[in-house]
Amino acid sequence: MQQYWIRWENWMTQHAPRLLNLLRSGASFESVESLEKLIGTALPPAFKTFYAIHDGQQKARAGLVDADQLLSIEDITAQWYHWKDQLDAGTFTWRDEPIQSTPDTGIKNDWWNPLWIPFTSDGFGNHLCIDLDPAPGGKHGQIITLWHDDSHRAILAPSFEAWLGDYLTALEKGEYIFVKKWGIVHKDTFLNYND
Q: Any idea where the Knr4/Smi1-like domain is (predicted)?
């Protein structure tokens, strides 16, 4: 995963050097192990290697993933607890029936699943997640979308490494730009304006 971080840091050096200051030092083995114990299963090896190099980003308005924060292990844990608390409180039920999502084939139709591990956040309850409990037709470790107020769940990539490679290739092709207020954003987004 080192080569992926080199590519990302090279892009930031050329286009947004201030973002380099947001990178955290690597996550400890203990913090990752603690998260795995919490969720009751192992995280994908590529994800753990990636986080051993940089533990996501510092909290800031500027995000590294299309304006979203790349969460630290501590923040992943906090987001997981937030969703789990809502699940346990019955927030995702209506008249004693589970509220279902409308997922792509390969994703379970839960509103949220404890084995959907959020690793990005827009600050409004929307995430990219690693799906460690796919439905038939899906792949363990696939990357999916999770919206707090929209039922659709989409598969973005078959694995964390595939998602990361696709994102970095898009960066290098110029599909994303740096906007001071928001960080790295897609060049066609409404967030791309002179600030």
A: 26-166
What is the residue-averaged pLDDT of the chain? 95
Whether residue 20 is predicted with pLDDT greater than 70 in this model: the reply is: yes
Q: What is the CATH number of the domain that holds 124?
A: 3.40.1580.10
Closest CA to 54 of 6, 116, 123, 118: 6
pLDDT at 189: 75
Contacts of 140 (CB under 8 A, 6+ apart): 131, 132, 134
Range of the structural domain that residue 157 is part of: 2-186
Query: What's this model's pTM, rounded to 2 decimal places?
Result: 0.94
- 152 pairs with which residues across the strands? 102
Return the DSSP state at 81.
Answer: H
Cross-strand pairs, 179: 183
Q: How many domains does the chain have?
A: 1
Residue 191: inside a domain: no
Token pair, residue 140, equals 């363990």
Q: Is the dihedral of CA 169, 134, 152, 124 positive or negative?
A: negative
In a domain, 11, yes or no: yes
Q: Flag whether 193 is in a domain.
A: no
| Antiparallel, parallel or unpaired: β 152-153 and 102-103 | parallel
Query: Is 69 within 8 Å of 63 (Cβ atoms)?
Result: yes
pLDDT of residue 65: 98
